[in-house]
Amino acid sequence: MRISVVTVCFNAVDLIEGTIRSVVDQTYDDVEYIVIDGLSTDGTTDIICRYTDDLTYWVSEKDKGIYDAMNKGIAAATGDYIIFMNAGDRFADNNVLSLVASSLGHHTVVSGRWNRCYSDGRVKPAAPKKLNALKVEMPICHQATFVRLSYHKENPFDTSFRLSADYDFFYNAWLNKEPFLYIDDVIVDFLEAEGASTSNITKSVMEREKAWRGENGLLLRKLNLKYQICRIKTVKFLKSITNRSK
C-alpha cells in the first residue's frame, strides 16, 4: 500500500523543516513525498533543497492559490492513498503511517484523530464528528485524512472555492455515498491558524453554502451558518478585550 504525502507551502521558512522531518522520519517503507512550493522568497526553498534526496518530487512555481497547488500534488502523486501535510503540521509520531496502513484499502476516505496545537504551547485533542455534520460543517481534519488517490484524481479540488474547496470535496464524497472510515489513531499535530482574520474565517464558513448548490430545504442550514459566524465574531471580540486588559 503506497502512501503519497503532499506538502504545499509558501514563504514558510520557520515551519517547513519540522513538517518535512515528520514525513521523512516515518518508519513506514512505501511512502512517496511530494512538495509543492508557491515560489517562496523567504528561504523556504533553501530548506527544501536540503532534503531533495528524501523527496519523490518537488517544484517551486507560482500557483493560483492553495487548492491549485494541492491539485498539482494530486496530479504528481502515484500512490494508493494521499494525505496532505501542510507547512506547520506534523505527523503525531514517526509510526503513524505504519499504524494506519492496515486500515487503508477498502474505503475512499479514512480519517483519524488530531491534536490542535497553539502557538502558546497548548494542545487540545480532537476527534471526528458524525458524518452528517457535513451538512453544515467540516467534521474531520483534512491533515488527519487519507483519500484513495484514484478517486481524488477523478475529483480534484474545485478552485472556484477560495477557502472551502476541501469541505466541498468531502461533502460531495459523502453525498455520493463514498465509503468513509473513522479510526482511533492520532494522525497529526495540526497547527491551529490563530492569526486567521475574522473576515477570512467568516468567508470560509459562508462558502460552504456554495457547496450545497441550491439543494432544497436549506433554510435551517443557512441559519446554522449565521449562528457559527456570530459565535466566531463573539469569541474573537472577547479574546481581543481579554488581550487588551493584560
What is the topological layout?
Blueprint lengths: L2 E7 L6 H9 L6 E7 L6 H6 L7 E4 L5 H11 L4 E4 L5 E2 L4 H5 L8 E9 L5 E4 L18 E4 H6 L10 H11 L4 E12 L6 H15 L6 H27 L1
Parallel strand pairs: 1-2, 1-4, 2-3, 6-9
Antiparallel strand pairs: 4-8, 5-9, 6-7, 6-8
Helix pairs in contact: 6-7, 7-8
Mean pLDDT score = 93
- How many helices? 8
Q: Report how far apart the termini are.
A: 52 Å
Major β-sheet annotation: 9 strands, mixed
Give the overall shape.
Answer: globular
Quickly list its features.
single chain, 246 residues, alpha/beta, nine-stranded mixed beta sheet, 8 helices, 37% helix, 22% strand, globular
Word description of this protein:
The protein has 246 residues and is an alpha/beta fold. It has eight helices and nine strands. Helices cover 37% and strands 22% of the residues. Strands 1, 2, 3, 4, 5, 6, 7, 8 and 9 form a nine-stranded mixed sheet that branches. Helix 1 (16-24) links the parallel strand 1 and strand 2 (31-37). It is globular.
